[in-house]
Amino acid sequence: MYFLTVFKGDTPILERVSFTDFSAAVSACGNYYEPKTPGAALEFTTIVVRNTFMRAHAELLRTEDLPEKIEASSPRRWKATKDGNAFNFSHSYKFLIASKAGLDEIDSQENE
């Protein structure tokens, strides 16, 4: 099982929705953005520990959601500009797809 959580900014708007297929969970993220070009792809970072998939995450960042003090040359501003050039989206979003093992790890860290 795979569990999708979507954050709008820092607020969860979809929490731990289950999918039997990883690709279906990734595809569900597409409900929050529209590619501007056919080749635009949202890139996920995937975490695997000792041959066990834990989680994958991605972020769409809008420049207007960044603090004004962030410099134009900063990695966050560069990412926001890149995302804005590749996708249409109404808010900054974070996507987290986790396995049961990944959720257990997240829950244990939150309880520490």
Strand order of the largest sheet: 2-1-7-5-4
Strand content: 35-45%
Low-confidence stretches: none
Give me the strand/helix succession. Answer: EEHEEEHEEH
Figure out the total of helices.
Answer: 3
The largest β sheet comes out as: 5 strands, antiparallel
Description:
Helix content is 27%, strand content 36%. The longest helix has 12 residues, at 75-86. The two termini are 25 Å apart. It has a five-stranded antiparallel β-sheet with strand order 2-1-7-5-4. It has a two-stranded antiparallel sheet with strand order 3-6. Strand 4 and strand 5 form a beta hairpin. It has 112 residues and is an alpha+beta fold. It is built from three helices and seven strands; from the N terminus they run ββαβββαββα.
Summary keywords:
globular, 27% helix, 112 residues
Task: Give a concise summary.
With 112 residues, the chain is an alpha+beta fold.
Show the helix and strand layout.
Elements: E1 2-8, E2 11-19, H1 22-28, E3 34-35, E4 45-49, E5 52-60, H2 75-86, E6 87-88, E7 93-98, H3 100-110
